[in-house]
Structures are given as C-alpha cells and as structure tokens.
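Reading is simple: each integer encodes one residue's backbone shape. An example follows:

___
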Amino acid sequence: MPSALDNLLNTFNLERIERNIYRGVSPKVGWQRVFGGHVICQALLAAQETVDKERHVHSLHGYFMRPGDPENPIIYNVDRIRDGGSFTTRRVVAIQHGEAIFSMSLSFQKLEEGLEHQIEMPDVPLPDQLPSESDLLKKMGDTLPDNVRAYLERERPIELRAVDMTHYFSSKKLDPVQNIWMRTNGSAPKDYLIQNALLAYASDMTLLDTSLFAHGKAVADPSLQVASLDHSMWFHQPFDMSEWHLYSQDSPRSSGGRGLSRGSIYNLKGELVASCAQEGLIRPRKSGKRVVKTSHG
C-alpha cells in the first residue's frame, strides 16, 4: 500500500493540458473539501513549470475564494506576467466547475549572495524530547477528545509534534502562540521543487488555529465558521523537509470576524528557512447554520 506521503507526492505530477494550463487531483483522504495547503502547493508547481529551473520561488501570495471539490480535478491557468533579468513573476488561477476557487501571485529569483540577518529561533524542547503521535495515542487515547483521537489515528504525509498540547484538552484562553515541530512522514526527494511544494503544503497546517488560542476555541468548534482566507510565504534558503523543522507561530490580532497568524520556520540548526502569514475567517456562526471549513486541513 502506498504511504500517505507517496499519495501526496503522486499528486505533484500535474498533467499539462495546453501551454500554461495544468490539471491536478487531490489525494483520496475522505475530506469534504480540498485542503488549502494542497491547492497552494499545486499552484506553485504549475507556476514553476513555466519558469527556468535556475529560478527558485522566493515569495507567494494567495487568496482562497471557494471550497475545492476533492472528487474532481483542479485546473491551473498560469499567466506569464513577466520574465525579468533577475526576477520572474507569475499569476495562477485554480478553477473547478468553471469558477475560480483560488488565485496566487508568485515571484521567482536566481540564487544570489547578499546581506544576511535573522531573528533567533525560540528556545523550545527538541522533537526527540516530545511524545510522538503514536505515543500520545498509547498513553492518552481513551481520554482524548474524539476529533483529536481521529486526527492522531489517521496516517498523514506530515508528522507533527506540538511543544504544548494544552489547547487540545482545555477551553482556557491561552496566549496566541504555539510551536510545532514538523517533517515528512518518510523520506522525500531532495529536488528543491518538491521540497518547496512540501513546505507550502505543510505551512497551511495549524497556522489558523493559533488565532483561536486567545479565545479558548479550536477550529473544530461548532460555534464558529472557520476557513483560510489568504496565505503568504517567503522562502529564505534551501531546506530538507525529511528533517525536523520548527514552525513557530503567533497571532498578533483578531477582529472583524478574522484572525491573523504569522509563522517562522526554522531548521534544526536554528536557521530561518521560510516565513508565513495567514488571515482566516473565525466568524461566530448563526444558530442553525452548518459550519463549512473550506480550506484548512
């Protein structure tokens, strides 16, 4: 049986339909909606198909418009906006059933040397000092909330280890900060195109949750309508997603039915390899209306 990581990597092979037009599919994992990180990474791969391989993505900015249907392919239409001397700019629109579900602007650059600085990685326990998801199931499976237990039981392409599990068990209002270690659940190809797509996929995991900590809520809370609205990433240096990376997150503000979260991604050496930002819908739902979580996995 193919692993969850194999199934994800298979969806990275986009079908070229015509110049600038590609078709992708979702892995069959039983979700009602296409995971937002999956659309982000496929849009990135579609754009990269139209760019010289010597140019690496350094930033992307996307907007979620409609929930994706996992039972049908997604069409990616790439607009070759500009090919400059140092930078290449692309715009991608993801389409299903004749309507745009996602759009993203991306910029690619030749690798260059230049001035460097970074903020320091938080001082947190290392992943080998934290329980694995299987350890948590063995130790606390009977006491875990049903949604948390179901999440931990399902094989996923990305392994996560949370530094603090408090929000899984408590409705206490917490500081809007969390630190998550993550890596691929298995060995991944070293090709930087695949590595960038894997990080783009993983970057949509847990980020929206952070904006709910201050309210004692979680993404599965039936009193809320929760969905990713936009997503931005900046890639700073090469990395290997087969190794552990710390996803350090905070949420500086929530207002207007929206929550803003930021993320910094460090390798085990403490090097900042990428940064993220996302605004999500965290709207109290009206009584009697069903929650539809459109894009966050």
